[in-house]
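Go through this:
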Amino acid sequence: MSQENLVKLECTACHRINYYSHKNKKKLKARLEIKKFCEWCDKHAPHKETK
């Protein structure tokens, strides 16, 4: 896996990093936001891209 396209997804409710994903940085300039399941909150919550 290429490390340069790897982004971390952080839960907006509890602020824990739960997921890693790939992103095409040439096409998507804005930060990624996906609704995913957080095992710490035990619910579906929006996850935002972090640095």
Summary: The radius of gyration is 11 Å. The CA atoms of residues 5 and 26 lie 10 Å apart.
